[in-house]
Design goal:
45 strands
Amino acid sequence: MARLADYFVVVAFSPGKRGNGDGQGQILQRFPEKDWEDNPFPQGIELFCQPSGWQLFRERNPPTFFIAVLTDINSERHYCACFTFWEAIDRSQLQNRLRKDEEEEEEEEEVAAPVQPAQLFAPKSLVLVSRLDHAEVFRNCLGLVYTIYVDGLSTSLETVIGNLLTCTIPIMGGSQPDTEDEGGARTISLGAGDRQVIQTPINDSLPISNCSVALLFRQLGITNVLCLFCAALTEHKILFLSSSYQRLTDACRALLALMFPLKYSFTYVPILPAQLLEVLSTPTPFIIGVSSAFQSETQELLDVIIADLDGGTVTVPECIHISLLPEPLLHRTREALSMVLDPGLEIADLAFPPSTISASSLKMQDKEIRAVFLRLFAHLLQGYRWCLHIIRIHPEPVIRFHKAAFLGQRGLVEDDFLPKVLEGMAFAGFVTERGPPYRETDVFDELVANEAQRMQADEGSKVRVLQHIKELAEQLYKNENPYPAVTMHKVQRPTEGSHLRLHQRPFPRLDEGTIQWIVDQATAKLQTAPPVVRAERKCMVPSGPPLGTLMERNGLVLANSARRLEVVRNCISYVFESKMLEAKRLLPAVLRAMKSRLARQCLTQELNLHVQQNRAVLDHLQFDFVVRMMNCCLQDCSAADEHGVAAALLPLVTAFCRKLSPGITQFAYSCVQEHLVWTNLQFWEAMFYGDVQNHIRALYLEGTEENHLAQAGEEGSQEDGSILEIAALQCRLWPTMSPEKQRELIQKEESTVFSQAIHYANRMSYLLLPLDTSKNRLPRSSGLGDAESVSNSFITNSIAGSVADSYDTESGFEDAETSDVANYVVRFINRFVDKVCTESGVTNEHLKGLHVMIPDIVQMHIETLDAVHRESKRLPPIQKPKLLRPSLLMGEESVMDGLRVFLMPDGREEGAGGSVGGPPLLPAEGAVFLTTYRIVFKGTPVDPLVGEQVVVRSFPVASLTKEEKITAQAPVDQFIPEGCAQLQLRSCTFQLLRIAFDEEVASESVEIFRKHLQKLRYPQHIADTFAFTVGQSIKPALQPKAKEKNPSLRTISKNLVKNAKRTIGRQYITRKKYTPPPWEHRGGSQQPFPEDNEDEISVSEEVDRSTLTPATLTIRPSDKMTMSNLVERACCRDYQRLGLGTLSNSLTRSKNEPFRISTVNRMYAICRSYPGLLIVPQTIQDNTIQRISRCYRQNRFPVVCWRNSRTKAALLRSGGLHGKGVAGLFKSPNTPAPGPSQADSTSLEQEKYLQAVINSMPHYVDVGGGRNTLSGFTSAHMSSSGKWGSIRASGRTSSYALNMEVGSRLAGKELLGAPPNGSPSEASFLRQHRASLYIIGDKSQLRGVKPDPLQHWEVVPIEVFEARQVKTSFKKLMKACVPGNPSAEPSVAYLRSLEESEWLTQIHKILQISVLVVELLDTGSSVLVSLEDGWDITTQVVSLVQLLSDPYYRTLEGFRLLVEKEWLSFGHRFSHRGAQTLAGQGGGFTPIFLQFLDCVHQIHLQFPMEFEFSQYYLKFLSYHSVSNRFRTFLLDCDYERLELGLLYEEKGEGKGPQPFRSVWEYVERLNKKTPAFFNYMYAPEDSEVLRPYSNLSNLKVWDYYTQETLSEGPSYDWELAQGRPEPVEDPGPPDAGAPAPSRRRIVWPCYDNRRRVEPDAISRLLEELQNLEMELGQVPGRWKETWDKLKAFQRAEAQEDGGGGKGVSSALLMASSGLSHQRRSLGAYLQESGVGSSAINLSLDGDASSTSTPSSGKPGGRRSNTSTLYSQFQPAESENRSYEGILYKKGAFMKPWKPRWFVLDKTKHQLRYYDSRLDTECKGVIDLAEVESITPGTPTMGAPKMVDEKAFFDVKTTKRVYNFCAQDVLLAQQWIDRIQGCLSDA
C-alpha cells in the first residue's frame, strides 16, 4: 500500500522589495509539518506553483490546475498538483506589509510605486505532493477543498485534508485482499459526501499515459514526433514550448511513455520556472517544458531541439544531426502510425468508401500509438537476451550486454541510430532492469519472446499488422483501466462564477493540531495492522528465438559461398596433411574468400578441429600458412569484432605453435599482433565476460548436476540460454539457502572471476607485447587509444627524439621516465583489470594482488619473447624471387640497379582481377630499374597461381608528371610487409607505378633513387635529354661541337643565328598614312593594288635593308645554301604541292599568282616561332610584313597555310591581336581621326593585308556589288541576342555553339531541317550570304568591336579554353583513367571523374570549331584562325581543318608533313608545354598535341576507311611526343632547333647502327618491315571532305588512356616489344603439366598484347606467308609488295566482273574488321533542287571500282548501287590509282622509247611509272605541281611503229619535257584529259 498524498501545502503571494506587483511564493502552511521518514519534503515547491513568477493581477482569474514534476537527489519523481485561485488584496494592506518589511525605504517606495487600483488580486496555490501519478484524483481532491472553501460548505476543511493525507491505495491493482468488491479499484471518500474510484494499474512497470500520446501526435504530427523520439533516444536536448502548463506536462509524459521499455535518466522537468531558465544551458541532455512567454530567451540555444506545441513545429538547429530509425523500420512505423491516426487514408481513393469508419476513442487511439512503438522496440531489440553476459549470480546478478555481437548479428554495424541507442544511459538502465533472468515480466517481455515470429509473418499484411496493434492496445488500455465499468465519481464542484464574488473571504488558516491528530491516528492504525503480503509474481524471463540467420538480409551471403567454404576446408586439411603443393595452389583463393564473414567463421571452426588439449605443434611451413590465413582473416575484421571472428581466434593464437629450438617455442600470437582489435578495450571486456559466463555456468553445472554433466554436454548445454536458466534457478533458490551456503557460492564465483582476470592478464600481454621488444614500438599503431589519449601512428622520426609511443595516462603527454613498451602494456592491463574486477565484485585483496602480479607477468613474457626473437632470426630467410632484368634499347643505359619493390594495385581493377575477371596480377614482386630513358618495373605476381607470368610496367622518365611519397593504407596484402616506404609515380603516358620498397631496401637508396629521377626528369638543358645523350656513356654538359657531323651545316646554322640575333631588336620604320581605295575599287575590281602604291610604305634609311629582303631584291649568294635547305623543309614541299608558289621562280613569276613564298623570315628576324619561308599575298611587300607583325602576339602575323583546291579559299593562321591592333582594325571609317598616328597607319596596313587576302580569291568578284552579309541573313531570318553567338568555355554542359549564320555548325540550323549539331550537312545558303574572309578570334579581345559593313571580312568571336584549363582537365583525366586508389564502385567513380575532367567537352569544342572552318572553306570563304598566341588551339584547329578537307593529309606521308609543317615549323612549344627541362618544371604538363591526336582518333573512329594509318600510329606518336626518345618533338621552334644544329642534321647521317634521331625515320623504317602503322581498311574517297559528328555522345574515350600490356610494358618501343620470345611458344600456366601443349591459350585482359597474340586475319596471312618463304629458303618479301600484288589481283578480278565482283579484300575485310558498319559520313545530305527546296537524299559515300570514272565529289553525284556497296570496302592500298595504263615513254638523251605502266594519283598529285603492272617498286615520279603545259607531240627516232601520230603528247614541267605515246588516239586523249583534270583541280 502507498499513500495517495504525502504533503498538503498552502502557498501564498509575498510582495517583493519593490511594490510593482512582482513578488514571490511563500509557504503559509504544510501538512504534516514533520517530514515522512521514507519521503522528505521536496524543496522549492513555491517556484513551481507559479512557473511564470508570482504577480498581482487587476482582475480575478478563474482557478487553474496543473501538475509539476520535481526530481529529488535519489532520482525519485514527486508529482506536485497545483490548484491556484486568486484572492483580493487591498493596496493599503500591501503597503502596510511593505512597510513592515522595509520601513527605511517607505517614502521612496511610495514614490516609486506605480498608481494602482484600489483592489488587486494575488494568487494562492493549494498543492498536493505525491509519488503517485493520479492526475484526475488530485484535480478532484483539490477541487473539493476549494469548493468547500468558496461555497462555504459545512464540512470541515481540516477533516477533508486529514483524510486526504491518510488515504492509502494499492500500487498495483487486483493484488490487495482488503480492497472493495471491484478488486482492482479502490473507492475513497474524503468525508464531504464525495466518492472517488481510483483504478491502479495492473502492472506498475508500464507507464500511464491517459490521452497524452494521442494529443502529442495531434499537436505535432507523425514526422515531428518521430524526430523527437529519435532525438530523445540518442540523447539530445529537447525543449517543449506552450502557453499551457498542463499541455507541457502531458507532452513530456507522452514522450516518456513512447520510450518504454527504456527509461529516461537525464534531467526531466515538464514545467521549468522562470527563475531557473539558466538550467537550459546545461551540457547534459534534458527534456524540459517552458512557457511560451519565455520563447525569446530560448532563441540563443544553439544545441537544443525546440518543439512548439501550440504552433505544431519542431526546430532542429543546423549543428545537430538526428539519427533516424534504420530504413525498413522507419517506413513501417510511419505506415502503422498513419493507419492508426488517419484510418480514412486507406479508403480515401475508393470509389465506394464504407459509410462509417470505426474511429477509435482518444484514449484508445493513445494506446494504439503506444502499441506501434512497443512493436518498434520489439523489432529493434529482438534477440537482445542472447547477447547478455551473466558474470555474477550471487548475491545479486551482474549482467553485461555484448553490443558488438548484437549489432553484428543484426547486420546494423554501419547503422547510425541503433549503436547510439545501445551506447546511451537509457539502454544501460534497460539492461540493469530487464537483464535479470528471474523477475516479474510484462507485455514487452512477452512481445519480444513470443511474438517475434508473428511480427515477421505479419510484415506484408497491413490488416494483420493493424489487428496486432489493436490487440496490444487492448492490453495497455486494460492495464490503465482494469475495471472500466466502475468509474463512477461523485465530487462536488463550485457553483458557476463563484470565483467572481466581490466579497469572498480569504482562504482560512487551517488548524494544524486537528490535521496532525487525524494523521497520527491513521499512522498508528497502519502500524498495528498486519503487514500486507504481496503475491510473488516472479518467473524466469523467456529469451525468445535466437537471432540466427534471420538477419542475413543485406546480401552478404554470396551465391557461391558454399563453394568458397569448401575451398577453405580443403586448404586447411591439405595444410595439416602436409600436402603443401595443393595448399599453396588453394591459398590465394582462401585469402580472397576471407572477405566473406562466413568464410572467416568457417576458418576458425576448421582450425579449432585441429587443436588437441589446447596445443597444436606445426612445422615451419604449416605455421606460415596458418599465420597468413589468420592475418588475412583478422585484416577484414573491425576493431569492435562484431562477428566474433577475433574472439574465436583468440584461443587458437595461443594454441598453434612451432619449435624453434629445444625449449623455445614460437606461438602464433607473436605473428598476428598487427591488428587494431587487440588494442580495443571493449573487445577484451566482452571476451572476458563471455569466458567468465562460461565458467560460472560450468561451476553450477558441476555443483548441481554432476550426474547429468555428460548428458547435458551432449544435448548442447553450451548455448547461452542454459546460463539464463541456471541463473533463474539460482535466483529462485537463493532465499531458501542457508547463510553458509550463500557465502560459499559467493566465494566460488568471486574466485572464478579472479582466476579469469589472471588468465586475461596473460593473454593481453601475449597480444600486446611485440616480438622484438628492443625496438620499443608497439604493434599496430599503438591503438590502445580507446583507453587513453595516444598517438595513432608509430613515432619513427620524432622531433623529440623519442623511441617509443608511450604516453602518460592522465595527461596524454609523453612520460620520459616510463618510455618503454613494458610499462605501457602494464598500464593498459591494469586499467582493464580495474574495470572488469570492480564490475564483477572481486575483493580488494584480490585486486591488489593482481596489480602486484601484472608487471611480473609482463616481464616474464618479455624474457620469453627475447629468446623467441633471437631464434626466429636464425631461421633460413624466405626465398625471394630472382630479380628479372629488363631488356634495354640501343644506347639506353642503366642509372640505378634494381631496387626490390612490390608493385601495388591502383584503381585499375583489371590488373588486380576485378570485375573483368582473370587472375590478380597485382600486387607483383620484383624490382624497379631507372635507366637514362625509362623507369621500369619487372617482376612476378605474388599470387602463386599466376606466379609464372612476368609483369612489366614502364614509362619514359621524361613523361613523369608527379612523384610523391604515400603513406601506407590498410595492409594491401599479406605478401607486402608493413611500414615500408611507398612511392607513387604518375606518367602522362597514362601509367602509374605505385611501389612499396622491400624492407631490405635502405631509405638512403630510396632517396638516391628519387634524386636521380628528378635529375633525369628535369635536365638543366634540352641537350641533356635522352634523345641527345643516347649512346654517350658520360653525360656531358651542353657541347654541341662534340656531336658535330656536318661542319658546313653547322656553319650555316651559326651564321643564321648570328644574323638573326643581330637583326632582332627594335627597328625604326617611318610610315605614311594609307588611304584605302574607293568602294568600287575594293569590291568590283580583282586587280591588285597599283604599283605606285608601294612607295607609300617606305623603310627609313636607318634600317639594314639586307635583313628585310624586299621581294624586288635578289637573294645574296651567301644565303643560297640556306635557301636550298629551307626549300627542303616540309612547309615548302607542301606549298609546292598546293600550288601556292615555288621558290625557283618566285622572284620573277608574274603577278597573276595571288600568293608568293616570302623569304622575309629566313633569318627568323620577324618572328622566331615561324618557319623561314612563308606564304603571303602577292601584293604585300616584305617591309610591310615587319610592321604588321607587331600588331600580333609573338609577331605571329597572318600567313596562308593551306588553300582549297576547288573553291580556292585560303586558310590562314596567326596569333591573337594586341589590344591596340584590335581597336585599330575595327575602327569605324566615319570616325574622324585626330591625325596620322602610328596606330592608325598600322591598322591601315593590316586592312590592306586582309584586303590582299580577299583579292586573292577568284570568287571575290561574285559578291562584290550589293553584298548581303551574314549579318543581313541573321536579321532577316532570326532574332538573336547578338550578331554572333558565342562558343562558351565555361561549364561542362555549355551549349558550345555559334549562331546560325556560320554554316551547319551554327546553333540555329533547325530552320534548315538539318540534323543536330555535329551531323554532316551542306550549308547551301552560305553561297548567297557570306563574307569573303572570316576571322575567328578570342571573344575577350573582340569585346565591344563594331564591324564595318563596308569591309569584306567578318569576325567570329568565340570563347576558347586556355592552356591552363587543358592542363587541369588532363590532370583530372589521368586520375579518372588511372586512379591512385581503388574505389568502392570503380565504374561509377570512373564515369563521374571523366565527366568532371571536361576533357571530352574540350575535344567537342575543338572539333566543332574545326568543322565550322571546313564548312566555311568549302563554301568559298577564306578563314583566318587568330586565337591565343597562335601556337596552341590555333595549331589544333588549322591542322584538323586540313586533315578534314584534304585527303592527302590522311596518308602516312601527308600526316607527317602536316605535323612537321603546322606543329614543328610553325612553332608549337613542345619543350615548354611538355616541361622538358628544369626551367619548365613549374609550368607543368599541358598536352595540346595529345589533344589534337585525340581529335584525329575521334575522326578515325567515324571514318575508318579514309586514313592510310592505323590507330596504333596515333598512339605511337602520342607516346613518343613525350618520351624524348627522338629529337623530333624537342624544342619550341625551328629557330631553336637551328641554334642547336638539329634542323638539317637528318640528311647525310651515317648508316651505321646509330639510334634513330627522328621519329619519322623510325616510322618509315618500321613500316617497311611490318604493317603496324597501316590501316587495311584504307579505301579513300576522292576529294572527300570529312564532317565528323562532334556531339559528346559521339565521342569515345581513347583506349590509349585506359589500356595497358603488363606482359611487356608499352608496345611503342618496337625493339623491346619484339625482343621477347613469342608467347605462343611458352606453355601457358594451365597447360604446364600437359604432355602435348595445346595451341589454345588464355588471353588475359590488361596482360597480353592482344594485337600480337591474336592478330587480325590479314596480318596473320602475311605472317604465315613470310614463314612459308623462310621455310622454303627464300628471302622473305616485303609485306607491302605482297599487299600491292593482292590489290592488283583484286582489281583485275573486279575489272573482269564489271566492277561488281566480291574481291579477296572483301573477304579479308569481313575477317579482319570490326568497324565495317562505320562507312564515312553515312547520313542525310541536303541538296539544292531547282526551286531551292531541300530534298533529302540518303546515300552511301561509295566509290566505284578504281578504273571507272571518279565521281564528281558532290553529294548529288554519288552512286549507291549494290556493286558500289561491295566495292567501297576496299582494303587499304599505299597508292591511290585514279587512272592507270600503259604509255610509251621516251628516255633521256640517247635512251630508247620503252613501255611503262603509268599511274595517275590525284591524291598525292603525282604521275608515277613502273616497269610493269605487277611491279611495286616505283621507277619515277612526275610531280604535277611542276607541270606547266600538255601539248600534242611528234614521233621521234625509235618511237613505236604502227601508232597514229596523234597518239603522241608532251608534258612540259619546270625542269624538263617528257615525251609520251599511247596505244591509240582515244587513249592518248583520255590521258591528256585526266592529267589536265588533275591540274585544274589543284
